[in-house]
Amino acid sequence: MTAEVAGLAPELTGARKGTGEVPIASAGERFTSFDVEAFEVPGGREENWRFTPLKRLRGLHDGTAALDGTVTIGLPETGGGVTVETVGRDDARLGDGGVPADRVAAAAWTAFREATVVTLDGTPEPVSIAVTGPGSEASAAAHLQLRTTPHTEATVVIAYQGSGTVADNLEVVLGDGSRLTLVVTEEWSEDAVHVGAQHFSVGRDATLKATSVMLGGDLVRISPTVSYRGPGGDAELLGLGYADAGQHLEQRLFVDHAVPACKSNVLYKNALQGVAGSPDAHTVWVGDVLIRAAAENTETFEFNRNLVLTEHARADSVPNLEIETGEIAGAGHASATGRFDDEQLFYLSSRGIPEDVARRLVVRGFFGEILNAITLPELRERLEAAIESELAISGV
């Protein structure tokens, strides 16, 4: 019989959910539920919340956010291998991607009234979806699910934009043998708060390439979770974040290898620029990878790099790797945080390149690996222009 832990709701007894005093021993023990009331209200000492400024969540974490606004989802035209449906909460497909693992994700699940399901079949043209917030004084919950049929090859771009406070769940369910390239951009207005859970369910021999670009918003916290439904699954998660003064960008990943012969590769890069007299620019990256005992022949690597451009900036980076079997193909993790590379600047300056131009070249090179992975030229050029605007603000 499991001992009861003081301070936890009855539903959490035995779950070993961290409260600061009772840390979770393994990522495999984390608690999940569709019911918001099954989660304790976070106080800030829990491992899952210790980096997040709770006072800036506008009540998403404690139930005081009304979540009665409306998120507008601009959808692609149907046909050509794309089917769009608006469904009720009782649709049996909802939840195929995964189960909420924190209180805000569960609150979003509890509050949404209708969900949007986009099904991709065959080789459709690239699909663009715009998700617009409810407005500066409003809060809302949303639910979007992407599905691929077996052996589909598709590209989807999801752009979050506008103002307001949003909690949502994004489900991505890959059929066996399918290939999905997904780009998710956070281009919110500067006052927006977005806390989103991403649930990636990768089928047998399916391939996911997901790129996250975080540029806008006051506070943005995204939690992707990858699970595999059969051998041969391959997931690549790439990310780019650019934090200005007072901005909080948080990326919290969990890759759960529970079946044999799957791969995962994680590479996230963040740049930060602060201003004296303002709150620090802050980025958080937490990468948890779990290789369970049954996941033999797993191959995985995760890496986070952070480039501090000015004073008054803080980057937190926590890579975690748990391995429960010795029969793996390879595994590793790393993180690095630093300022401009003086040797690179000296090299460029010695060849007649002005220092301000040289600094911009260093930053462009830092982000180049992520941006070059975006195969849609117009999108890549637009994001490059947005980063150039950020560089101009800091005078880098």
From TrEMBL:
Belongs to the iron-sulfur cluster assembly SufBD family. It comes from the Bacteria. This is Fe-S cluster assembly protein SufD. It comes from Pseudonocardia hispaniensis. Residues 1-20 are annotated as: Disordered. Residues 136-366 form the SUF system FeS cluster assembly SufBD core domain. PANTHER family: PROTEIN ABCI7, CHLOROPLASTIC.
